[in-house]
């Protein structure tokens, strides 16, 4: 399983890539494997300011729907429009083309408080 070291992770299985004050967010390879085949991604929060751990959308797999939690406080800037027609990108490329949203982070230092790749790897038992 892949745990890119340039990302930060949450216990809820989201990943964060911080570039300045903008963060790209998606779900981890572990999460997409646990969910199974992703058939729909719903993110109705574009432009909204949310607190850390607020739900920013849902991901639907064949047998379940799971909430998506914002790792750090910020404003949802954009949603990956490719997921509308190709939600399976979350399964095939969770750290690349399967990203979900970008946000403007309220406090970039908050990202440093998230799990490192090694800490996340230990959390999921890999």
UniProtKB/TrEMBL annotation:
InterPro entries in UniProt: 2-oxoA_DH_lipoyl-BS, Biotin_lipoyl, GCV_H, GCV_H/Fam206, GCV_H_sub, Single_hybrid_motif
Modified residues (N6-lipoyllysine): 63
Cofactors, names only: (R)-lipoate
Every Lipoyl-binding domain range: 22-104
Listed Pfam families: GCV_H (PF01597)
Cofactor: binding comment: Binds 1 lipoyl cofactor covalently.
Keywords: Lipoyl
Biological function: The glycine cleavage system catalyzes the degradation of glycine. The H protein shuttles the methylamine group of glycine from the P protein to the T protein.
HAMAP family: GcvH (MF_00272)
Family as reported in the entry's similarity comment: Belongs to the GcvH family.
Quaternary structure and partners: The glycine cleavage system is composed of four proteins: P, T, L and H.
Name by which UniProt lists this protein: Glycine cleavage system H protein
């Amino acid at each position: 399983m892949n745990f890119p070291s340039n990302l930060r992770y949450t216990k809820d299985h989201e990943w964060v890539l911080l570039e300045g004050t903008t963060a790209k967010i998606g779900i981890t390879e572990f999460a997409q494997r646990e969910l199974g085949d992703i058939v729909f991604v719903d993110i109705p929060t574009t432009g909204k300011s949310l607190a850390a751990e607020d739900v920013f959308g849902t991901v639907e797999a064949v047998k379940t729907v799971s909430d998506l939690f914002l790792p750090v406080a910020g404003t949802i800037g954009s949603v990956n429009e490719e997921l509308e027609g190709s939600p399976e990108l979350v399964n095939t490329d969770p750290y690349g083309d399967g990203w979900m949203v970008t946000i403007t982070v309220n406090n970039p230092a908050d990202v440093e408080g998230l799990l490192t790749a090694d800490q996340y790897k230990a959390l999921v038992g890999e």
